[in-house]
Amino acid sequence: MPLSYQDQVNLLTDILSNQQTDCCGSVAECEQVERLVKSLMVNTNLDNNVKPVLQEIYQYSQNGKYSSDLDEHILSNQENLNNWVDNIGQFS
Fold first, then answer.
1. Cα(37)–Cα(8) distance, rounded to whole angstroms?
2. E strands of the chain, at which residues?
3. How open is the CA angle 52-34-29, to the nearest 5 degrees?
4. Can you give the pLDDT at residue 92?
5. Cα dist. 58→1, 19, 45 in Å?
6. Residue 66: enclosing H or E segment and its boundaries?
7. Nearest residue to 36 via CA among 78, 67, 5
8. Residue ranges per domain, the chain?
9. DSSP percent split of the chain into helix, strand, coil, nearest 5
């Protein structure tokens, strides 16, 4: 059973919030974020103002997936994570 749009937004928010709070994460989380963002981006009802935020999140997860120090990558993106979680909250 596929996740609804709202479920996808909630899951994305949860993962990013956990990374922000814990200052750590896993490659599997980065891959999950990529899949969620891709799925959200193809939604035809998506507000065009949201797409740049999702593209930033996708790039963050790509960089994290290939980072030699994922925890440092997450730590260095704390402000971005905070902004993204806030932005996602506005369109969910």
1. 9
2. none
3. 125
4. 59
5. 24, 15, 19
6. none
7. 5
8. 5-91
9. 75, 0, 25
